[in-house]
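Archive transcription. Copying these from loose printouts into the bound notebook so they stop getting lost. Printout 1 of 2:
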Amino acid sequence: MTALSDDRPAATGLGGSRWLEAVWEPEARLYVLSGGLEILDVCGEGDPRLVCADLGTATTNSAKIRVYKGGDLISQHNLGDSPSGLVGFYSENGEHESGALAVAAGSSVYVYKNMRPYFKYCLPPMEAHAEEREIWHRAGLEDDPNILVLTEDLETLLKEHGASVLSPRTLKLLGMESNLRPSFVEQYRRVPLTRPGVATTIATIRKDSWNNVASSYLLIGTESGQILVLDTRAFTVIDRLQLGWSPVALVGTGLWAKESRVVAVGRDGKLGAVKRGSASKLWSKLPAPAVSLSILPGEGAAVAVMDGSLWGFSKKGARLWKIQLPNIPLDLVGLPVPQRGLSLLAVSVARFGVRIYDGKHHVDTINTMEAVSAMKYGRMGQEERAMTMVTVGGGLNVRILKRTADFSTYVAPEMLPNFGSRFTIPKKTRLFVEQTIRERSEAVKIHDTFHRGLARLRLHTAKKAVDELTTNQDSGPSPVIIDASVLGLGPDYMIKICVTNVSDALSDTGLFIVCRGENADVKPRVLNLPLLPSTVPIPVIVKASPRSMISGKVKILCCKKGRVKPVALTSIILPAVEEEIQA
């Protein structure tokens, strides 16, 4: 490994390095694009590691998943197709061992646990183009299809609509030599024509918790313009969000169990959001294709565009600001600094390193030897604030944000003093301002935390009230016992209930019998009891019938008016009904 000196001032004049050099491995030979990095505790040991979706070189053409601990490669796994993204997720709340990795590649999503293949989810197929399906249908009806006419019709369709709407069967036929086409057509002309579903991007959305280790759902963007919401426990589709365009980047905001939103950007520049149970809303039509997408404070979104601009949008789709970058952006990631109450953006710009923005204000620059093609910020190993970068030349670089880093490099014009002398801001005032900024940037999270605490308080109060109602009852042995037996062969049974007062005096008034059937119908369900003499069993008859061929269960409770707990109870099983045998 080679160390770099990062003490030189930034190109923008922002002096003083806020970053420490941790790893610089120029010969790592990693070729990663935006969305191809993840930092995840792959083994559940509390040691997050770097996971890379390596596309491979043009000569090898072999995509791999590589896992790094620090700057050392510890494992790698081959992929059958080029990955379109990878994300880490947890399937259980508060359980580090439930961490897993999901890789979208081609028409499948591969799930790894402990970096071992765990599950493969195949996307549902899409319907083929109507004209293409009609052409193959005609070929299947003919006894001797004309290969030349079939090929000409498919080539015309390819010129009109492009290769993205055609099936692999058609593309393979058009790429064959003429002497191989007749046998191929004869083999597949009567097979139903479908197009495999293709995963264009992948992301996660939290299920019901804001904790650091919280369960999530997978968001899979497809070529058909849908977003599949995949349960991470059963790996089944729980919802389909209709977007209307093919997404290339997704971010999920909020909690899926409450108010959530999925922000998506397409390869044609369409940027919008979609909520569960509602139609998608188009925010803006970008002037050029998008490079990457990131979250802003308040559930907004920032998007880097290939024309060299950086856009910020509110959660309702209103444009907040637009920045013109000095060159073409290559990647965009969020850079939260909760200790300072900040939520920054890191933008990789060709020939200008990585530029750090606080909203639309440029606050720092990370100088690199090469342009950075992919970035990821988060905890890596024992470091909480590590910026991992992969350069276009295949190098691996890790920087650590200093704990004393201060990004307050600009002052709003209206806040400038009217005098030239400088003054020291008191510590309490500075803490108050930082706390106010944090409350503004995380208002939704703080509001949700308050309501969760209020709900827990209400639940605790209700439990205490129920305990008081149920425990403050007469205690001691029950003066009444119940004995029950089943009479009959079915399917209609009679239940004989004998109620006996075992005390020396008459029983209390207001006693009654309640019958609760499980998979059984009981008539009558409630019976009033007379005064019970001492040691004399009082019989009561009720009728019961199982609702199906499975045996039923009847719970019999002796209750007293004005009392929550039953005086006595018992249960009885109804025999299963035997099927009638036809003579």
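Printout 2 of 2:
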Amino acid sequence: MNQAFTYLWNSKGTLTLAAGLLLGLSYPPFPLPLLIFPAFLCIFRIVDLSTSARDAAFWVYPGFVVWNLIATYWLMLATLAGGVAAILANSAVMTLPVMLQYKFQRSGLSPWLTALLQTASWISFEYLHHHWDLSWPWLTAANAWANVPGLVQYISITGYWGISFWILFTAGLAYQAMRHSSRLLATGSGIAFSAFPLLSLAMLWTAPAPDATTTHEVVVVQPNFDSYHPYGGHASAARANDHLLRLSDSLHTDDTRLIVWPENAIQADVSNRESFGGTSGPTRQLLSRKVKEWGATLITGSTYYKFYPSGQAPELTYGGSNQQPYLPFNAALGFQPDRPLEVYRKHNLVPIVERIPFVHFLEAIDIFGWVNWHHIQGYGKGEQANQFSIRESRTPALICYDSVYPSWIRNFVQQEAGYLTIITNDGWWGNTSGHSQHFAYARLRAIEFDRWIVRSANNGISGIIAPDGSVKVETDYGKTTAFRYEVPVLRSQTLYARFGDWLPAGLLLFLLGGFLYLTLLKGAVSPTE
């Protein structure tokens, strides 16, 4: 037995496959988040066995491919080539912090400081990976614990970065303890492992009563449209609208304040020009009449075409020299009984699928004009954190991918969002783990911001999530349904809402300081290492 363990513990090939398998199985829908701790132990062991930073990256890469395949295989169901490319590319990018971890492992620093710098390397990568055009935060280490909200309540202080810190620092100290045969380091790892969940439980037990004095009756619609058929599988855009209206009418009451339809629910073209496409004007008029009849606000997803006056258009727009410039947006529309149409344009767009990454840079360096970047750019990118007014409160409409970016959502909470509304269409990848993960990750947003979550998904999962991350309503996937719920309106501000990404920003500064120390003062980092 000891010989077998010794062989496995010293085989980089076996370790990388074990790490990939453990990491993949630690994410929803698998109820095995604890596996992420031994997974990172395997990664730290590969780092220690490697002969260079590049060698470490080479050996962890297969494991990261396995991880990405198990957790995000569903990307290939929307587009096979694009899904494969995304998995391989993201796995490659994830090797970058491992190369830094190798440098610190060879630095000669104390094991405590080594573990902390290796933790900072990973979390700094996750943080930066949230803030560029190829952003993909789906596999942030923290997301593995999305379905165990009772043990991660402290993220109302740290943001979900605190979970990543807990995982990496615990595993880092554990590996250093094994490497140095140190009881003190092992004790430190044990304390780190238990302290964060205990803090979370203490926060649950001592949490004050909710300060909600107002509730909104909300109707959530799940139309179950077929994303791969025109008009969602209906005969026309008008028939699709009728389907949505019937579901809404079935539950609407005189007390209803908000009705929520999912992303891309409106199958007609909608624009700021009444005559656009022949359907924009009639659709807007129909829904404007309906919200007056209801006396409630309607939030719905739609592709929205914004036409710009001459001289006021952004740099890259659609439309030829003889056409008025315009951009299409993945948008949320707010129809209200007593206000003009309000529009929120999605800010966080899925790379390649929704928008070409770095399109403005690519257009600038294409001095010969070989590519028509204007017409292949995809959706326009929204830059304003617009919310929708609901009587005395307001709520955003986070569109699909928006909901996995806490730093963006913080803008809405700081502007006094009473609860968070998510509209999404997870039907592109069918009945896979993708929609389960997306729903689970919303539980973290509820805890981070102390807000109720209202979620409308085209095919599911729609639901209601309480501020402690507990699920109050959860629909079945692939079912046409609607439900009504009294949603409390909250005004509290968590420490994370107030101070934002202080933890990853601080760790990034700490990492830079450690790297500069090794490079400039100690001379421990060399190009050939």
